Prior knowledge:
Layout: E1 16-17, H1 25-39, E2 56-61, H2 67-78, E3 82-87, H3 99-108, E4 113-118, H4 123-130, E5 134-140, H5 146-160, E6 167-171, H6 178-189, E7 193-197, E8 213-215, E9 227-230, H7 246-253, H8 257-261, E10 268-270, H9 283-286, H10 293-318
Parallel strand pairs: 1-5, 2-3, 2-4, 4-5, 6-7, 6-9, 7-8, 9-10
Helix pairs in contact: 1-5, 1-10, 2-10, 3-4, 5-6, 5-10
The structure holds phosphoric acid mono(formamide)ester (CP).
Amino acid sequence: MQRAALTTAVTWKRKDLLGLEELSREEILHILDTANGFKEISTRSIKKAPALRGKVVLNLFFEPSTRTKASFSLAAQRLSADLVDVVKEASSAVKGETLVDTGRNLEAMGVDIVIIRHQQAGAPALLGRSLDACVVNAGDGTHEHPTQGLLDIFTMREKFGDLAGRKIALVGDITHSRVARSNIHGLKKLGAEVGLVGPKTLIPGAFKDLGCSIHYNLDEVIDHYDVFNILRIQMERQNKGLFPSVREYHHLYGIDGNRLSRMKTDVMIMHPGPINRGIEISQQVADGKNSVILQQVSNGLSVRMAVLVLVQSAKEAHGA
Ligand code: CP
């Protein structure tokens, strides 16, 4: 139940999409409305539109990815763009080339849009300032993952329509989650109530300043929320002593059939992936009827098509 276009008066003027923090409510709605239009293309037998014909899209990934990289690739191809992939291990970054030099060299070959995932927060912003090409953040350190936030919000709006007053919980490692930051910025701008649930060591108190409530006891708020967006436990941080053990984490915060049975009956269960089955979410819940995890992935394609078209259009129209 996506709402009808609310934002026809908005003209998108950004050549880069770096995060949801800097976007207005109207800009966020404009992307979502544009994505809604692109969703129809995915239902056609020939899933192609000519919007980016003759343009070159580059995937520049310095960290692993399955969903985001494949989704941007398919989005670019559905828009008839040419696509180039560069991954860190096979790039001259391993020989010491700077990010800006890499970007400028690729731009010199005619790249129009750079999709960048980088371990360093702020890397996409640096590249955006350094290039005439559009830059889209596909996840930078613990900062933001704006298209994940947008596709999550798009998926919530398909079910709930207007999110004003909707109760959305983000569960898990908030501290290290770029997905959480993008969700929080986007959801708060659309008027949702956002709760953060997890161990004290993984939720900075400063998140209260963004208007979120914080809960250390999941079971106390289990029937309060309309949506539980469950974050991946970042196993690579296991040795940092942020929680006692994976087993204890599962006991206190894992979403399993028992906890699902105490949630609202139509609760929406989300997860950005990749999933640690049996840790933050059980098999039964991940594959159950309340789960929209694969719907999120499908919607990501429409959202990314919208983003690619909007940034390229802005660059051409405004020289932004
Ligand atoms: N959700 C997400 O960013 O997944 P990938 O790391 O597979 O891209």
